[in-house]
Write a structure and sequence with these properties.
Layout (H helix, E strand, L loop, with lengths): L2 E2 L5 H7 L16 E6 L1 H4 L9 H9 L2 E6 L5 H15 L3 E5 L2 H5 L4 H17 L3 E5 L12 H10 L3 E2 L2 H6 L13 H17 L8
Parallel strand pairs: 2-3, 2-4, 4-5, 5-6
Antiparallel strand pairs: 1-6
Helix pairs in contact: 3-9, 4-6, 6-7
Length: 206
């Protein structure tokens, strides 16, 4: 598993206009609310509710993780929905995993990238930390779509860009051709936990 760290502290970004790989998030407290925002990969399609990656992440970390996944949602609908969910849940950190349905339905990549950037900028404007999970092109090679690295590089977002593609390549970790099974979602949760530890959002050993 590869974790790509591209982390910015908001105050420094505002004043310096740049991003350093050495800058880490402030460690989250016990009363933290993490929002897992996305589509069916976040919702947990292919497994039971308590086996979704947000539910397992909550179990692993001991902090509140809200599952805001909507199966079948495309990124333009996600961009419109985000503000209502943020206003309702008031998260400290958002895990963004979106775009898979865009790829399946052959939507323009430029539009998907625009929507991802819009969601990240919306969160940044409200001083809400955000990390991102890369989603693969669901074709023969199952490699993570390049839009995620482009967005992560430009906006300074911590990115886990291997785990979903790795899981979907292995029959033992998937429930169908695009969704993990319970074991796959647990692996996904562990990858997210590692990302949050690497960025300093969670203490190691939690």
């Amino acid at each position: 598993m590869k974790v790509v760290l591209r982390v910015c502290v908001f105050a420094l970004v505002a004043s310096l206009g740049g991003c350093s790989d050495d800058i880490q998030f402030t460690e989250l407290g016990d009363d933290t609310v993490i929002l897992a925002f996305g589509d069916s990969l976040t919702y947990g399609t292919g497994a039971k509710t308590h086996q979704s990656y947000p539910a397992v992440l909550e179990e692993l970390t001991g902090v509140t993780v809200i599952n805001a996944g909507v199966p079948g949602e495309e990124s333009d609908a996600g961009a419109k929905r985000l503000s209502k969910v943020v206003a309702s849940e008031e998260p400290d950190l958002v895990i963004l995993c979106h775009g898979g349905n865009d790829f399946l339905r052959k939507r323009p990549r430029a539009k998907t990238e625009k929507n991802l950037r819009s969601m990240i900028n919306y969160l940044r404007e409200r001083d809400i930390a955000v990390v991102m999970l890369g989603v693969p092109d669901f074709g023969l090679l199952l490699s993570t779509a390049d839009v995620y690295e482009s967005v992560a590089d430009d906006l300074g977002v911590p990115l886990e860009d291997d785990i979903i593609a790795d899981l979907i390549r292995q029959n033992k970790y998937k429930s169908d051709h695009v969704h993990p099974n319970a074991d796959g979602y647990r692996m996904m949760a562990k990858a997210v936990q590692e990302l949050l530890v690497e960025t300093g959002a969670l203490a190691s050993g939690e």
